[in-house]
Structure formats: C-alpha cells, structure tokens
Amino acid sequence: MTGAIAPMATRAHGDHGHGHGSSAGKTTMTSVGTKLAAELQGKPVVVQIKSRNCPMCRAMEPTLAAIKDSYRGRVTFVTLDVTDGAAIRGAERVATQAGLQDFFRANQTRTGLLLAVNPASGMVWEQFRSGTPEAQITAVLDRAIAELAERK
Length: 152
Hints:
alpha+beta, four-stranded mixed sheet, Glutaredoxin, 4 strands, single chain
C-alpha cells in the first residue's frame, strides 16, 4: 500500500491525576483491539482519555482544541472523560457506541492518552503525548485522511 502510515511505537503519558502507578504509562499502543463502529468509518479517529484533574490533559487542551477546529468534519474525535464516576459512566456509553468498550476497560486509568486510529482496522497510526507539536499531529492526520481516501 503506497504511503501507508505505519503504527508508531511511542510511549503514552498515562496515569496523570489518578495515582495508579507508572507502569501503565510505559505501554506502547499499536491497536485499540478491533474495527470501530460503522458510523466512525471513513475518517481518521482521534481517541482521548482525559480527566479534568490531569495536568497533562489540561496542557494538551489548547493544541487539541485548535486541531478539532481545523479538522471538523474530516476527523472524528472521541473523548473518554474519567474525571469522576458520572464522567466514567458517560465515557463507558461513548466507548460502547464507538466499539471501544474493551479498549476503554483496559486503559481507563491512562489519562493523557491520545491516539490517531484507523477505524477500519483499529490500528493506531500514532500515539501522542502532551507537548507534541501541533504540526506533528496535523501531519499524521493529513496522511491518515489521504490513506483512507486512497482506499475508497
């Protein structure tokens, strides 16, 4: 496949604001485990696990807000908020609708996790962390959009 985006082996930022230890933050994510829901097909999906108490999540918000604005209609953004019990219940519903329920169960303590995902395969194109330059994220999203368009 020409110009395919290979999954990146980077480290997640995880566990900010939850105090669940540092081991979860060292896991390399290459897949969310399965193809995503039918309504998410055709556009790259950015999955974020966040908490309002997470300093890394808060630090990434301005960059993510700019990207969401720039890519409105071309990229689907799925935010899974784990700030408190009510937020987690809402995130579980969102994860189930998106086909991410197993991924969410396994990773809900990994706040600061931001992934660009191929919805057709569930493969992670790239994993980002706080401090990732906006240009790096947009370059991945541009390539992902082109790759999905090429497959149509």
